[in-house]
């Protein structure tokens, strides 16, 4: 198992990620980065890919009112962002065969980014330091939504770019598309 500090020590920030990664390092130094009681905490997510079909799986996020990648918060006792992202991806997609998109990406984030989360109900606006991975499936037809209000759907890279409005998620899609290109060549 990797704790978040070792993941951050091995990660090489790109394209403006350094400030967010530095904030996350400070959060780790202060205590439990996964605790949801503050205005800034860690989450883990993944872009799930069907490499043969050159598609990504997007999930409708009711709170954000948009199509995003899968992922979320740590369960009590979880500290390994890879395990958190994998558990969340399996829960939200029904896919059991998820694996790193390429072997070199096992336990290696593709992106680490700070994202704003709007207030909702009793929860104040806050920020997530999201550690993002790329997972592949060989059985995309087995995907299914976790719940009726969180549908999932496969889209090609062009359609994903048309659906996504978040610049940081567009960057993740671009990074993963390059990896898929390398895999399918």
Report what the structure shows.
This protein is of the alpha+beta class. The chain has a single domain, classed as Nucleoside Triphosphate Pyrophosphohydrolase (Alpha-Beta Complex). The protein is 31% helix and 26% strand. Strands 1, 2, 3, 4, 5, 6, 7 and 8 form an eight-stranded mixed β-sheet that branches. A hairpin with a 4-residue loop joins strand 1 and strand 2. The chain is globular, with a radius of gyration of 16 Å. The protein starts with a helix and ends with a helix. The mean pLDDT is 94.
Would you summarize the structure shown here?
The protein has 185 residues and is α+β, with helices and mostly antiparallel strands. Helix content is 31%, strand content 26%. It has one domain: Nucleoside Triphosphate Pyrophosphohydrolase, CATH 3.90.79.10.
The computed structural class is alpha+beta
Number of domains: 1
Fourth-level CATH superfamily:
Nucleoside Triphosphate Pyrophosphohydrolase
What form results from the Cα inertia axes? globular
Question: CATH architecture, please?
Answer: Alpha-Beta Complex
Average pLDDT rating:
94
The major β-sheet equals:
8 strands, mixed
Please identify the oligomeric state: single chain
Question: For the record, what CATH class applies?
Answer: Alpha Beta
What's the order of the H and E elements? HHEEEEHEEEEHH
What percentage of residues falls in helices of 4 or more residues? Answer: 25-40%
Total helices: the number is 5
**CA gyration radius, whole angstroms:** 16 Å
Percentage of β-strand residues: 25-35%
